[in-house]
Amino acid sequence: MKQHIAIYPGSFDPMTNGHVDIINRGLEIFDTVVVAVARNNDKNALFSIDERIDMINQLIESNPRIQVETFSGLLVDYVVNKQARVILRGLRAVTDFEFEFQLAQMNRTVCPQVETMFMMTSPECAYLSSSIVKEVGRLKGDISKFVPPLVAHRLIEKFNN
Ligand code: ADP
Prior knowledge:
- By secondary structure, the chain is an alpha/beta fold.
- The protein contains 6 helices and 5 strands, in the order E-H-E-H-E-H-E-H-E-H-H.
- Helices cover 43% and strands 19% of the residues.
- The longest helix has 17 residues, at 94-110.
- The structure holds adenosine-5'-diphosphate (ADP).
- Adenosine-5'-diphosphate (ADP) binds next to helix 1 and strand 4.
- Adenosine-5'-diphosphate is lined by residues 10-12, 16, 18-19, 22, 89-90, 92, 96, 121, 125, 128-130.
């Protein structure tokens, strides 16, 4: 039977409960979810690519239906190379829409056989982003409700150094 693969691209700097929610819901629909960490816009990242990959690998606890990879260059090229057809993205507020709309249209124009599919955020994750979590962490606020315990631990370590 044909395997349905979704590529879930992003920065994941670091992974939040919002990302985890999208991955878990993605697994209800797709056989495999590939978490694809982008190497492109790495300049202002808090965690290195290796640190992010390491955290994600620990979080997914060797679930054989989740793969963790990095990619650089055009996302659609990477998707086609993986023999996948679906890019999975999450949508939070209206503010996400414009950028995601532009990105999806562009990807579709460049590569019509690749489809972008969106999942609405779960209400409890609607206000969560990696940036806001980093900001709260930087100011020594309680981040335990926003990220998995491992990520909270790594954020506290980062900001204590
Ligand atoms: P990017 O830099 O590509 O936006 P992110 O790591 O910020 O990378 O996000 C990756 C994907 O996860 C995006 O589709 C984003 O909309 C989605 N996402 C991030 N946080 C949430 C959340 N709280 N709820 C739903 N989707 C989310």
